Amino acid sequence: MVAPRASPTAENPAAEVQVSAGASLVSQPSAPDPLSEIEADSSGSNSDTESVRSIVDSAFSASGENSGDDTSSVKSHIFKYQYENGRRYHAYREGQYLQPNDEKEQERLDMVHHWYRLTLRGALFRAPILKYPQKVLDIGTGTGKLSSLLRLIDKPLLMVTGIWAIEFGDEFPSADVIGTDLSAIQPAWVPPNVQFIIDDAELEWTYAPNSFDFIHARTLGGSIKDFPKLLRQAYRTLKPGGWIEFDEFESWLKSDDGTLKDDSAISEWQTLMDQASTKFGRRLNIAETIEPMLKAAGFVDVVDDIYKNPMNPWPRDRRLKELGAWGNLAMVEGIEAISLALFTRVLEWDRAAVEVILARVRKELSNREIHSYAAT
Prior knowledge:
The chain has helices at 49-59, 103-119, 150-153, 164-171, 227-237, 265-280, 290-296, 318-346, 351-365, and strands at 2-3, 20-21, 72-73, 81-84, 87-90, 135-139, 146-148, 158-160, 176-181, 189-190, 194-198, 212-218, 238-247, 308-310, 373-375. By secondary structure, the protein is α/β, with parallel strands linked by helices. Helix 1 crosses helix 8. It is globular, with a radius of gyration of 20 Å.
């Protein structure tokens, strides 16, 4: 979602800035990808996780390891953790975020980052920011280390998984980039114009008014209790002409041809996830609500770009097939992480029951006869 904040006018003397509020992920205007117009790949039988991984395997070549030149140390080191159901969770502001921060989850976040870059055709963002931004904030910044996906795709593939803040800092050396997160999972060495702060974006911001050129946030669904408050603080801290961008996906899979049935395991699972996250007070499925909240906070010219990303390689289109392969891998590997705490803590299921429904969902996610997609 992308949109600007209004500049001072005679009609609006209180407004200080024209900012644009980022849009959820969208198709390029020149090359939209409506899945309803894409043919399904009917060659072969239903895919399973291994066949999806083989598609990912063939899509990428090995890359070299980052030398780490021109770096500086991360200043915050908070390495206390909580453990539950075999997964590791953050300790700072314990219980505010229900997804783990262990190595398996970090690998999933890295895959999601790559999936987003594929969706945006290699771009890091959509907002028309200044050529030489000076100060940038990345909310919920995630990981930023050299990651090996060897365990996942059976190939010695190393990739610099791109924490968004590090890649932005490399691309825009003029910018001082701040990445905030509840978990200290960032690398010890970063570009000199990037710093990480262990912070809760839901607390009162201490940044000066009109100080950021660009604020970026991705997949905050399920982690923010009071989005209007967060947007008000973002509005206050953006400079005149600055932009804010939200990249969110709908946590509700769909199909345009009826192949995703109402009585499917996927439908049952996502209904329970929506109920649990709503009860928890931090709803996952918030993508459709971002636009009106941005407007209510004072942002103008809000642009909501929407992509339809397949959940396995069912389309015939080569690019969509690759997106589906990565989307499927991220979901199949990460469904436990996004589900476990919501089901056990909020819905009070035992872990065995959770594993049963997740096994059914994984099977359907990899079924090429189910033409499901996520709107991002």
